[in-house]
Amino acid sequence: MLNRIFIPYALYFIYKLLLWSWRVRVFESEAVQKMMATKSSFAIGHWHGDELGILHLLKPYHVACIVSTSKDGDIMNKAIRLLGGETVRGSSTRGGTQALKGILSLKSKGWRPSVAVDGPKGPIYKVKPGVLQISRLTNLPIVPISFHSSRHFIFKKSWNQSKLPLPFARVTVYWGEPMPALSRDEDPKNPELAQLLEQRINDTKKMAAQLAANTSKRD
Any alpha helices (H) in 27-69, and if so which ranges? Predict the structure, then answer.
């Protein structure tokens, strides 16, 4: 019990210390710039392994995350809230009725729902229906996001190959081109829609790497 209370604060402190050392650049596609300027809402889709490189955006982008109801989820739930984000407990793909209701409620309050689209257990880099279902229910476009870092540690024993930028790394984040909201007559389980979103996220990953290379040359 004490560990579940202490660990989130320890993780928060370590993450903030790392963030202080990183050289972060955040780039937005033109469409995202317009949505931010008008304070429009949108859903956010990213690979599970990219979470550690984008958690620092929870507060400035007013992000809400779906967090599992497991014991590990308890720790992550508190850590996300410490970082300025909002949470909904549950799963976007299994037994997710409560999670979806929570997302609808938070969306009405201006929060932007974020989903690790290949979670909670993979397969890696394959989009699950959850974020597409959220888009259909909320009528929100899905904005892909990825990051690139000059130096990072990879958690190779984890299925998601999560990447944590190392101290003093250059971290480049890119918000990509939105995927239009699903209409009511579209099927969130349609594999073609999943492939389209996979491509959008992968394009965003490539763009982050390209922008990192370009800015590095100018420094």
Answer: 30-37, 51-54
